[in-house]
Amino acid sequence: MNTHPYSAKPADYAMRLKEAKRGISNATAATDPVIAPQLLESWQRSYAQGIYPSDQKLTAPDYPLHLIDDHDRQLSSVVGDEIDAIWDSFGGENWVVYCSNAQGLIIRARHGTNPASRGYALHVGRRIQEGDIGTTAPSCALLEQRPVTLVGAEHYLEEFEHMFCCAVPIWGPWGALVGVINITGSEEFKSRLIEKKLTSAAIKIENRLFVDIHRSNSVFKIHYDADFIDTHLAGLVAVNIFGDILSATRNALEMLDHIDPFTTRYNVADLFMGNFVAADGYCLKSSLKNGIVFYTKTSTYSDCGDLRESAAARVSSSLRDFSDLHMLETLRNVGGNVSKAAKVLGVSRNTLYRAIRKQQSSISTPLL
What we know:
By secondary structure, this protein is an alpha+beta fold.
């Protein structure tokens, strides 16, 4: 939606927004080359659902509250840290940072201290679809499935005409939209950093959801730049014991843009050309069949927010050997104590010795 507050707008932009909304209310076709078509369409949908710009929907005393379910509670438990981080950067007395589910139901929120502010009414249990409070950034982000920023009269309701609103979608482990993360506050605040901050937060949330759902599978980090392999910007790929790709995060899918693991089964052997070879920082390096070089590490972290805990080894190998690499990195982390490493991993010492022998036979110098 071309409604970003940093784009060049004519001096009469706010007036043209209001004129277009009046046209919709009068059942007149609203067209204006300055106003994004998606915005006009959202206003028309709001009107079609019986909402008028002058309605007091946000602060109405009789708005319905909805119950959240177990799925909502799970998402709520994951988004808390990122909501707090966004709040620490941009929060204020009249602001609210919240997460809604895919149906537009707010499942977690953090507010300022002013209960009289309009944003204070956006709390857990409220639904923020177009049919509830008209055109807002989160309702548009849910529908368009991309980041959306609205400022002032770009909102449908006059109640929002002095507010800033930015929302970014959150994608689940199986490629479906699970919600949005949003910040709403004063129109005067138009930092270019907000959308970047929310996008980063959404990726971290997606990574946590991904690792949590794939705890029984092997998860690997990939990136075409080794400097990013230990950051949240690395793509995550889940594979089974046969090397079949089960799922991937959106960062991974963007890097592997020619595959769709949700509709077609792929094996890692079908994607990469040749063996994985040693790279700096115990990364493994290989190339896709289109020639793009990728770096990869296994992920063994329990808190994947920063993706700092990882395991891999210098070895010419396939991804099917990554369970061995995980054991060897664990052994390194405990100072070479085989008994302690076996206990941490929940495997026998013989299994660990097998991985050591295999590693030592594949490189000229021992790993440990």
